[in-house]
What we know:
Layout lengths: L16 H8 L26 H10 L2 H15 L3 E5 L2 E2 L5 H7 L7 H15 L1 E8 L5 E7 L4 E5 L5 E8 L2 E6 L9 E5 L12 H4 L1 H19 L6 E5 L11 H14 L16 E5 L4 H4 L1 H16 L17 H32 L3 E5 L8 H12 L6 H7 L20
Antiparallel strand pairs: 1-2, 1-11, 3-4, 3-8, 5-6, 6-7, 9-10
InterPro entries: Phage/GTA_portal, Portal_HK97
Pfam family, one: Phage_portal
Protein name: HK97 family phage portal protein
Amino acid sequence: MASFNPFRRRPGPNRPPAAAQAAAHTKTLAPAPGAATWLLSSQARWGARSYHRLAEEGYRRNVVAHRCVRLIAECAAAVPLTLSAGTTRAADDHPVRRLLAEPNPQTGGTAFLETVHAQLQIGGNAFIEAMADADGRPRALYPLRPDRVRVVPGPAGWPRAYDYQVDGRTRRLPVAETRGRRPVLHLKTYHPLDDQYGLSPLDAAAFGVDVHNAAVAWNKGLLDNAARPSGALVFDPGDGRPATLSEDQVQRLKAELAEQYQGGGNAGRPFLLEGGLKWQPMALTPADMDFMELKHSAARDIALAFGVPPMLLGIPGDNTYANYQEANRAFWRLTLLPLVARTLDSLSRWLSGWYGERLALAADRNALPALAADQEALWRRVAAAPFLTVNEQRAQLGLDPLPGGDRLPGTPPDAD
């Protein structure tokens, strides 16, 4: 264990680079990449906001953000779909149904949509490329990694092409339509300050992710160092020593503090003191600072950004909903169905250009178990409405009209 001696000779020009850097930047700490830092720091440090950093620090290293992204992507991809061509429901063997069931040879339909929705949650953008066959119809759909796609703006500021970069090569995909067919579909969430790219929920939740990761790193550091709290070094002159430390001694102590005792990895490390130095506990203990509640608060902020009720994630302290079923219904109504509707609307308009007919993809709400209670209440209300015709009742339930159904229930067929 290294010891502190303020009167030890300061190292010369061959001082280790890490110590020199710590002495020059005594307020910069790094307990974990992208984590917030409080100890001996004048301000918190937050992680970068690139797609790679969001995916690394949020999706890969934060359990709450990871679960939110997975929950939204998996549930949204599993929603049963209906397809209409024009004003009638499309047949089960419609080419679009087959295409969405098997978008490409490597990916099934559920995995394809799960990838698209996960990319929207992590980066706010999703890009889908269509490969055409000899007849000019899409034979395969491929999701492109958002961090590899760059929007090329035109003279008016709107996108004129997309550059897809992989393995040091760049492939340009035009935006211009050929007979109504666009090779790339760009899905994005709303961004108030950017015309080209979307703003992801994970970006909005990044502060909560940083705090949550920092709390985890800090607690881990305390456990690694016998859970001892932090404190301060106090210089007690005596035995003929000067009343104050010299500038060189102060700088050396700062450097050694930064190298050996600051950051989540060194949290609670005990001091070995000499040369008139005394240890003065000054920081709050982990129980006083209540890191567990800090973690739960940050976790609730992350869940709020994604629109996931904390009750579904097992986060304590949230009593917004009376029970799990109510929270689950709110999750489907307020988060999943609007997300699926936006995605399917964009897919419908994009594929309509390829097939030359008006296509409409929609979520089949009648087939969702999570909304069974809502559907049952709707059925009762519609059935108890004698002023609606049979086809009007079926339209309320999302069903196709029936021949002869334009009359009120109980009316004889010849009453017209």
